[in-house]
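Please go through the sequence and fold tokens given here and tell me how the chain folds. Record follows.
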Amino acid sequence: MKKTIVLIIIGVLLLGGTTGYYFYSKNGVEEIQFRFEKVSRTDMVVVVTATGTLSAVRTVQVGSQVSGILQKINVDFNDKVKQGQIVAQIDPTFLEASVRDAEASLQRSTAQYNESKRSFERIKTLLEKNLASQADYDAALSQFEANDAARKQSVAQVERAKINLRYATIKSPIEGVVISRAVDVGQTVAASLSAPTLFTIANDLTKMQVQASVDEADIGKVETEQEVTFTVDAYPEQTFKGKVRQVRLSPKVEQNVVNYTVIIDVPNPDLKLMPGMTATVTIQIIKKEAVLKIPTVALRFNPPEELIEQRKDSSESQNGKEDSARTERRKQWAERMQREGGNGGGDPQAMQRRMQSRGFNRVWVMNTRKKIEPIMVRTGISDGTFTEVVRGKIVEGQEIIVGTIALRSASQQASTSPFNQQRQGGGGGGGMQRRF
């Protein structure tokens, strides 16, 4: 009986010791797994994306300068018109009456002018013979001049009435295609302070333009003559091409967002593109072929300090002390960075931002001793996802660290201990522990 109790006690002690050693050895230890990406060499294109609306290069809204009832309409949607072609006719009855009234006023003014002219000439003759006074002469001259001005005014009224009558016949100002008709026969056109729009005529639909709205953060990269590609919803599988013609200086502010309008010339020989279509625009800023590039996230990765290998200089390993010239260079570099950074000179992140502003960066690689070490690189263009490497000790196909996969803490390891397994619950989130 005593022997059995001793064996049980020994077994319990062994079990407790094993469990304690497991938790002690794993307490606070973290397992870090890194994500790697390979350095590649491909073409790189930096672009700016935007949306815009297609329209004809030249679009004219045809209106009416006179009021009246539309008597006739000669064109419809999609009709081709020539310059000077009659597209509509306003009822001229009232305007013709206005012409006749103006002509009658002119006739009356002409008669008064002729009468005053004869009276003036008669008084002038009498004055020369000293048979009329100077006052009579002045009165006759004033009446003659007033009637002359009234006659000229009547002539102008006749010309105005005839012009309005001509305006009743509406003609196309350009050659093109009717893309909009806003009136019908019998409709009354009221021209007051502004001319009502009757038709919209596009000059040439084989040459169109895209008015794209570019964000203020990207407008500094856009210049004239840059290549553009875009798609429209009507032809999602087809890519159209264009070229930047103008970057307008006038800003458009919508909900505190500042955009600028970029005009893009677009050829449209097969007339697939129509006015009003929404275009998804890609403006090519710069393109480089066969460049060495790395993922941009690799430049923002900062590893734990305990995994960074502290490298020693070869001179120190051989002679037991650091090279004085190298020490001096490092000291000068640290002092300069502190002067330029002010109070933030000792901040590693601030120093990294200053290096990035100068085009310098660092990436991290894992060596054969399973330690990570930095490699300084000089970066070039970036499309947001990848960044060009202009200079640095990295080669194509080399693996660099871009991040970590997961962190396993001591509490997570304890939950996976062979002495403490947890059965996953159903949908309630609770679990039943099963002990051995």
